Structures are given as structure tokens and as C-alpha cells.
Amino acid sequence: DAGVIQSPRHEVTEMGQEVTLRCKPISGHNSLFWYRQTMMRGLELLIYFNNNVPIDDSGMPEDRFSAKMPNASFSTLKIQPSEPRDSAVYFCASSRSTERNEKLFFGSGTQLSVL
Amino acid sequence: AQSVAQPEDQVNVAEGNPLTVKCTYSVSGNPYLFWYVQYPNRGLQFLLKYITGDNLVKGSYGFEAEFNKSQTSFHLKKPSALVSDSALYFCAVRDWGDYKLSFGAGTTVTVRA
Hints:
The complex is a heterodimer.
Chain A (H helix, E strand, L loop, with lengths): L4 E3 L2 E4 L5 E6 L6 E8 L3 E9 L2 E4 L8 E7 L2 E6 L8 E8 L9 E2 L3 E5 L1
Parallel strand pairs in A: 2-11
Antiparallel strand pairs in A: 1-3, 3-8, 4-5, 4-9, 5-6, 7-8, 9-10, 9-11
Chain B lengths: L2 E3 L4 E5 L4 E3 L2 E3 L4 E8 L5 E7 L5 E3 L5 E5 L4 E6 L8 E9 L6 E2 L3 E6 L1
Parallel strand pairs in B: 2-12
Antiparallel strand pairs in B: 1-4, 3-9, 5-6, 5-10, 7-8, 8-9, 10-11, 10-12
């Protein structure tokens, strides 16, 4: 099992540019989460998908952020336009189900730097 | 609402000594509790979880955690720390009626040789 795969590992962009982060969850997992990690705010849940459907996007900071999951094996998080305060590590995580005792499997993250 | 507190930003111990990382939680119902570890430039890795049953939970790499309902705590422990245990540790809680996993701020553990 290859685990949760995220790309790119690092992204450096200029303010105002569009950024797209990608995630491939573990095969057979039907729950997917996007988290953001910063020193100031720790780990924040941005959005949660179940069976490819967005269930809760209340953590998405602004309309500049959007996420999609067109199929069970792929999800994207897009920031348009990007701003310096978006600089953070973005993690994708998946789990087998919505059972409350299921653990999450995390990808290695995307380090985003917006200049 | 659910929340997690990790009162220590950093824990420093000598190799071979016992290691404890503290965690307290707040939930409205019954908690599902988790510990994760993050090594530099890596994603979080699952260590152990408490769902129900025995208050002492054993997990990966020799770690264990004790659930204390009266103190609403779930401290992570290792009897003899290794230098390779140096990492960032996160406690997380999920209320029985919620899918969201809320993480603590994290505790940086440094084990010196």
C-alpha cells in the first residue's frame, strides 16, 4: 500500500497566483480530510469528504479556497488568488469509513510558500 | 464542542528515562482518543487509540496511554525513551457523535543521548 499521496511536496508561488494541491487517498478509503498546519494555529480541519461528497467545509477560510473530489481516488485543494498568509503545510488524510473509532492516514503534506 | 489541551510545548528527557506527554480533553459525550506522532517533513502517524474497555492502551513503538475519565486525561507514556522518539506528538479527540478529529497544539519531545 502506497499510503496517501500528495503532490507537490513543496510549492513556492507569488501572491495572486493560483495554487492547486493534489491528493490520492488510500484505495478503499471513503473519507477524506484536508488539514492545514501552521505554527500559530496548529492543525485545522479545512474540509471533509465522504464518498466523494463534501460534508463539511466550514473550516475553509475564505472563498479563495475550494476543494473537489471528482472520484474516489483523487482530490484537489485550490487557492485562487493566493496570499502570503496562506503559507502553511497542507495535509490530506483518509480513513476507511466514518466510524468514529477509525484512525486517519496522513500524506506527507505540501509545504506552501506564498511570497 | 470538543477540544484537546496539551499543556507542555516541549518535553526533554534523557535516553533510557521514562517519557510522559500530557493530554486533557473536553467532549460532550463519550470520547474517542488518539495519539499521533510527526517526524520532520513527514505526515502524522497513528500511535494508538482509546475507544472503550481497558483504560491502559498499548500502541506502536512501545508507547502506551492511560485513559482517566475522572481527570479527562489521556497521557502518553513510554517506560524507556529512545533518541529516535524525538518528534512532535499530537493528542486528538473525537466526540462519539462527531466525525471531526480535533487535535491539540502538539508537544515537541527531545530525547538526549
